[in-house]
């Protein structure tokens, strides 16, 4: 499903953290949001996913207005996300974390859950299978029974991706999924995101790793001080003088250039 | 915010990792039934060693408190919500069981009505006050408990006022007589209370491992993340609040019947604090924590009457030390010790 952001904005105490940002993310594509720290990227995610309430603008999923819906209602319309500052469930095992992502597919009712009826066990068993498969896909299967509190930052980032995937989402917002990952892990995350998009999901990515962004994005939106300063394909963004001045700088441009030749 | 302090994974020995990654053993009996059986054995053990009716009466109190505290475990341990007003729900169950038989309603129905009333009240007030969190929720529930306590102590025509009231009606002895067992009243109530606590524990354990329970535990750690996975956080919190109120009300109804007498203090602030303290002392994350907390804080004052003047000091001292040395409560502390020794 396509995600349309139309003139969205929010102000905190008179400061416009996000101001009149519009773009469209399409199914089967990776749309990346880049920009310097404090540009409003994560705030934008929080607006789109219903954590904050937008003071201006609209969010549409496949043309349907979903502006102002609470987070769980957006999740039911197929939106899932990961968090920059990690929102895992540290008291649970990795497996339980991901199983929680199956919540919307679980059909047992509260009474069956309380009485331990067969239907509750069946749903739990099904969620366990789905969660194991997602952990496998994220390269975390051997850590399934570890408490999340004992996993590394990079592993937790991937745990969040697995958890978002099992929701059965069609739109996936990824907030710095490769942060804390080493080069090998970054490559794995890169492949994973690529595969997710190839399944026809709409992927929106916030990422500072320019090599990764240039490699997997079909479309890039550049934010600076809450405003969109550029938008286009990787090639276009790499050569845009505004973007180089505001964000990429000489070093970033070189990295992006290098990525183009990988 | 959840997820802090999780940035580095401690290096572990290979063997330890091996143990951790093994899938959970397949069990023939489910966790709920297993918990019920463990509780049943403990109830039976008590009956085996108790020398007098006095012990049975204290034992009955332990099980009734365990039941009430299991409700706190669901609310505080699973979802992470603090209520300082649960004695109010406890008292609603107790007073309905005391009052309604005076109007010709049989005790079992009176109990049921009291429990239903507590559940409905929790449902009605839950939605608005559960929007609050942390201290604010604690204060709001405290206010709710106070209101209930005030009604109970002021409406003397109905509740007997501060002096409390006699509870007439059902005696558990008759239940056992029906199946040909002759028990003393104190013994009969002990078995009934123990059975209720075992059922309550099994239900709470079932919940923990179920889809609904995972959603509740998710809210405990991060409500933002829970919401992003489609969990209706307000609804889930409200459900947990109602469930825990039902636990308290059933426990209150049992206490009224077993004691044959109740006072407004069953709904007082100190009783609410006591319930939360039991949960925290034993370990709010499990029903066994509820049992251990209830056991210690019910039995210890009986033992400490020997020290009369120092009773509160000793109790307070134990609490302070527990919180300093084992913040997650006794049961998780002991389980950790056990696991460490095994590996």
From TrEMBL, chain A:
GO biological process terms held by the UniProt record: D-alanine transmembrane transport; L-alanine transport; L-isoleucine import across plasma membrane; L-valine import across plasma membrane
Keywords from the named record: ATP-binding, Nucleotide-binding, Transport
Gene Ontology CC terms, in alphabetical order: plasma membrane
Residue span, ABC transporter domain: 3-250
MF annotations from Gene Ontology: ATP binding; ATP hydrolysis activity; L-isoleucine transmembrane transporter activity; L-phenylalanine transmembrane transporter activity; L-valine transmembrane transporter activity
Keyword Transport set for record: yes
PROSITE patterns named among the record's database cross-references: ABC_TRANSPORTER_1, ABC_TRANSPORTER_2
Database matches in Pfam families: ABC_tran, BCA_ABC_TP_C
Protein name as it appears in the record: High-affinity branched-chain amino acid ABC transporter ATP-binding protein LivG
Organism placement in taxonomy: Bacteria, Pseudomonadati, Pseudomonadota, Alphaproteobacteria, Rhodobacterales
Automatic annotation (TrEMBL), chain B:
Subcellular localization, as worded in the UniProt entry: Cell membrane
A GO molecular-function annotation: branched-chain amino acid transmembrane transporter activity
Pfam family, one: BPD_transp_2
Predominant location: membrane
Domain of life assignment: Bacteria
Gene Ontology CC terms: plasma membrane
Residue span of region Disordered: 1-23
Keyword set, alphabetical order: Cell membrane, Membrane, Transmembrane, Transmembrane helix
Species this chain originates from: Limimaricola cinnabarinus
InterPro entries in the cross-refs: ABC_transp_permease, LivM-like
Parts of the chain that traverse the membrane: 35-56, 62-80, 87-103, 109-126, 133-152, 188-208, 240-263, 275-300, 312-335
Compositional bias annotation for Basic and acidic residues: 13-23
Biased composition, class Polar residues, residue ranges: 1-11
UniProt entry tagged with the keyword Cell membrane: yes
Membrane topology: Multi-pass membrane protein
Name of this protein: Branched-chain amino acid ABC transporter permease
């Amino acid at each position: 499903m396509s995600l349309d952001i139309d003139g969205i904005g929010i102000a905190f105490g008179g400061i416009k953290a996000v101001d009149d940002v519009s773009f469209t993310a399409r199914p089967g594509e990776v749309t990346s949001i880049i920009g310097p720290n404090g540009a409003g990227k994560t705030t934008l995610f929080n607006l789109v996913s219903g954590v904050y309430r937008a003071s201006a603008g609209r969010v549409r999923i496949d043309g349907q207005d979903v502006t102002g819906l609470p987070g769980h209602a957006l999740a039911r319309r197929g939106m899932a996300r990961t968090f920059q500052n990690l929102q895992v469930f540290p008291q649970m095992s990795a497996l339980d974390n991901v199983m929680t992502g199956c919540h919307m597919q679980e059909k047992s009712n509260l009474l069956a859950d309380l009485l331990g009826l067969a239907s509750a066990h069946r749903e739990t068993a099904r969620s366990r299978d789905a969660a194991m498969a997602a952990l496998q896909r994220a390269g975390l299967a051997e850590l399934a029974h570890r408490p999340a509190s004992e996993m590394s930052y990079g592993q937790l980032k991937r745990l969040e991706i697995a958890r978002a995937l099992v929701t059965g989402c069609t739109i996936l917002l990824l907030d710095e999924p490769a942060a804390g990952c080493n080069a090998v892990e970054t490559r794995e995350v890169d492949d994973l995101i690529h595969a997710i998009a190839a399944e026809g999901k709409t992927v929106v990515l916030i990422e500072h790793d320019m090599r990764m962004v240039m490699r997997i994005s079909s479309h890039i939106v550049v934010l600076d001080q809450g405003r969109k300063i550029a938008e286009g394909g990787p090639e276009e963004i790499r050569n845009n003088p505004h973007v180089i001045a505001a964000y990429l700088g000489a070093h970033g441009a070189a990295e992006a250039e290098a990525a183009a030749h990988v | 915010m959840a997820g802090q302090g999780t940035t580095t994974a401690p290096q572990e020995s290979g063997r330890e990792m091996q143990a951790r990654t093994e899938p959970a053993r397949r069990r023939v009996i489910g966790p709920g039934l297993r918990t019920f059986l463990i509780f049943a054995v403990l109830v039976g053990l008590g009956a085996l060693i108790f020398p007098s009716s006095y012990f049975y009466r204290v034992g009955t109190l332990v099980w009734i408190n365990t039941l009430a505290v299991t409700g706190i475990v669901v609310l505080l341990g699973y979802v992470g919500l603090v209520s300082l007003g649960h004695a109010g729900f406890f008292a609603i169950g107790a007073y309905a069981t005391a009052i309604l038989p005076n109007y010709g309603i049989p005790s079992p129905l009176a109990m049921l009505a009291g429990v239903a009333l507590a559940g409905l009240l929790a449902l009605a007030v839950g939605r608005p006050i559960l929007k609050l969190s942390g201290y604010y929720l604690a204060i709001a529930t405290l206010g709710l408990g106070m209101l209930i306590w005030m009604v109970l102590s002021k409406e003397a025509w109905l509740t007997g006022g501060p002096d409390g009231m006699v509870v007439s009606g059902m005696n558990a002895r008759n239940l056992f007589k029906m199946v040909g067992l002759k028990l003393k009243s104190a013994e009969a109530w002990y078995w009934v209370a123990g059975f209720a606590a075992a059922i309550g524990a099994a239900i709470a354990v079932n919940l923990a491992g179920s889809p609904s329970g995972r959603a509740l535990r998710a809210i405990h750690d991060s409500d933002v993340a829970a919401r992003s996975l489609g969990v209706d956080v307000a609804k889930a919190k409200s459900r947990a609040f109602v469930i825990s109120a039902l636990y308290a009300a059933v426990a209150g109804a049992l206490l009224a019947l077993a004691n044959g007498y109740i006072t407004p203090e069953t709904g007082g602030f100190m009783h609410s604090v006591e319930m939360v303290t039991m949960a925290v002392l034993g370990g709010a994350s499990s029903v066994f924590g509820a049992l251990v907390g209830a056991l210690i804080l019910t039995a210890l004052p009986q033992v400490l009457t020997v020290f009369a003047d120092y009773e509160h000091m000793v109790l307070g001292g134990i609490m302070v030390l527990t919180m300093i040395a084992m913040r997650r409560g006794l049961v998780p502390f002991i389980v950790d010790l056990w696991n460490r020794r095994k590996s």
